[in-house]
């Protein structure tokens, strides 16, 4: 019998009480909720989620090369949409999608009986708040091909296989905001207790891959991050494709160079 996630936490860090002041952790495999406060050496408490890791596709890729993926998709997607990949401003190309599949960041159903392929991706969304009740929004991105694309959404990042929400949040903040933040990321990110939500969105197409239907599994939290500017600012992307072993494919992919951020009122961020 496998151990409960709670059994993996050192007893010295666990304090049971009936009226928690900090965070209630939820075990997805039980209806019982146990309130726990974890004490760290940081100036503020960093709230951790006792959730099982998100079950994402493995790194196994059914397509050995971007070319094989291209030839499989071509007859299954609208030709005008498919041909715009990497050509239309703001879109990505077949190399990007192949890298996603290879790294387990997304999956595609390969059932030949289904006329239209569906891309499925788990995304962590971090709604960063400030003391003025503002919400940090990514206004737009500058891509490596010199084009820009509008975003107007909170910080978002595709999740990796087996990655839980807390780790994905820290990684997302590091990769997209790390160029402007000083200090250890883990010590300055504070997830708001009870803010986790999960929902599924289905779209007939996406900005990155026109014509390819997509199922987004969204894992959303609210958080506070110390050290961010109070005015609009820009950051440089860190870490995209750095773990890719196929350098030749990565060199042909479109990647994000810069993120442009702005603070907006909470009512305008939804």
From TrEMBL:
InterPro entries: NUDIX_hydrolase-like_dom_sf, NUDIX_hydrolase_dom. It comes from the Eukaryota. Residues 121-241 form the Nudix hydrolase domain. SUPFAM superfamilies: Nudix (SSF55811). This is Nudix hydrolase domain-containing protein. It holds the Pfam family NUDIX.
